[in-house]
Design a protein that fits this description.
Blueprint lengths: L3 E18 L2 E18 L3 E5 L6 H8 L7 E6 L2 E2 L4 H6 L1 E4 L12 H11 L4 H14 L15 H13 L5 E5 L7 H16 L3 E6 L2 H7 L2 E6 L2 E6 L1 H6 L5 E8 L2 H8 L4 E10 L2 E8 L2 H14 L3 E8 L3 H9 L7 H8 L1
Parallel strand pairs: 3-8, 3-9, 6-7, 7-8
Antiparallel strand pairs: 1-2, 1-4, 4-5, 9-10, 11-13, 11-14, 12-13
Helix pairs in contact: 3-4
Bound molecules: adenosine-5'-triphosphate (ATP) and magnesium ion (MG).
């Protein structure tokens, strides 16, 4: 059995916020985390995959002691997040999305030096580390410019460097490739793999299933604050192995989607995206070859126009669709509002 380096026990977080409508305001509770139990193994890249609003950032904030959970607890590197928060912080590196915690008036180098000092990295070691990171991430001459002049991709890279400044054994990365261009994102993933080979444990959140599939040893799928699937990408996909997925595109009305769901053998029919009157649909079924004629007949017979049909292999996104009836691209908060 591998050693457990992060352990969560019934971790829950409820936010209370105020909805304002004109002069009236109403208290609203959001259960961002609902009793999460997870164990992360020493030396793995662990992926937390979920749509917008699923609770990924909240979970990272609880584990990195930036938020206190409403109930439940967790241990990072053997230290409890509630009773030994300083020890937790000293043993982790963290890159949060949104609040990247950089000082805009300082240069990149000054930022890294400051955060290195916060982590008690001695001055000569700090200087050496900054040089190493500058080379590793190709930070280039913008390291000497104030952060307010950076592009968003450059800020992300500096935030990544900041997470690495204390060479901590555990790294928390919250959607680190968002706003990075494709080559930079690819480079970041390569560095994450290299750091992992050197022995770092990585806790990585993403809403991109390809990223989770490519990078992570194990993946937990989180939806509305709860973990709904856990395993290696292969295990998750093979949970649907007897099922097949057909992608259909065209002008497809909502009632047609309902008609599809009624065909025996169709497990689910879910709208993946809609734009400019075109709909992309994912149909999960037992035997696509046998069902395809019936599917097309039902669609065309009910007034839909189909111009693209492709049966394909199961992806992590399909696992998510099969479990939730929604696609990863759908914002959970919008769904919750509609339902509420
Ligand atoms: N400070 C807060 N006050 C009230 N509600 C909050 C607060 N922070 C988060 N939430 C709510 O908690 C839920 C989970 O949010 P969280 O930021 O953890 O999601 P996420 O998975 O990181 O989403 P994203 O992919 O968009 O970053 C959402 O419904 C969000 O609106
Ligand atoms: Mg987030």
């Amino acid at each position: 059995m591998p050693d457990v380096i992060i352990k969560m026990e019934e971790l829950s977080k409820t936010f209370i916020s105020k909805d304002r409508k004109g002069l009236r305001s109403k208290k609203r509770e959001v259960q961002a985390l609902k009793g999460v139990n997870l164990e992360i193994y020493d030396g793995e890249i662990f992926g937390l995959l979920g749509p917008n609003g699923a609770g990924k950032t909240t979970l990272i904030k609880c584990l990195t002691t930036l938020l206190i959970p409403t109930s439940g607890t967790a241990w990072v590197n053997g230290y409890n997040i509630l009773t030994h928060e300083n020890m937790v912080r000293a043993s982790i590196g963290c890159m949060l999305m949104g609040e990247r915690g950089l000082y805009w008036k300082l240069t990149g180098r000054e930022n890294l030096d400051y955060f290195g000092a916060l982590y008690h990295v001695p001055k000569p070691a700090r200087r050496k580390r900054i040089e190493e990171l500058s080379t590793l991430l190709s930070l280039g001459d913008y390291l000497e410019r104030s952060v307010e002049t950076y592009s968003s991709g450059q800020k992300m890279l500096l935030a990544f460097a900041k997470a690495l400044i204390n060479d901590a054994p555990v790294l928390f990365l919250d959607e680190p490739t968002v706003t990075m261009d494709v080559p930079t994102a690819r480079k970041l993933r390569k560095i994450v793999r290299d750091l992992n080979e050197e022995g770092h444990t990585i806790f990585y959140t993403t809403h991109l299933m390809l990223e989770a599939e490519e990078l992570c040893h194990r993946v937990a799928i989180i939806d509305r604050g709860g973990v709904i699937e856990l395993g290696t990408p292969q295990e998750l996909k093979s949970s649907l192995v007897t099922e097949e997925v057909i992608t259909l595109e065209g002008v497809i009305q909502e009632n047609v989607v309902q008609n599809l769901r009624e065909i025996p053998g169709v497990k689910s029919a879910t709208i993946k995206s809609e734009s400019k009157g075109r709909t992309t649909l994912a149909v999960i079924c037992d035997d696509s070859r046998q069902l395809l004629p019936r599917i097309i007949e039902t669609m065309v017979g009910n007034g839909a126009t189909v111009d693209f049909i492709k049966p394909h292999e199961v992806t992590l996104e399909d696992v998510f669709i099969a479990r939730t009836g929604r696609s990863l691209g759908v914002d959970t908060r919008v769904v919750a509002q509609k339902e509420g």
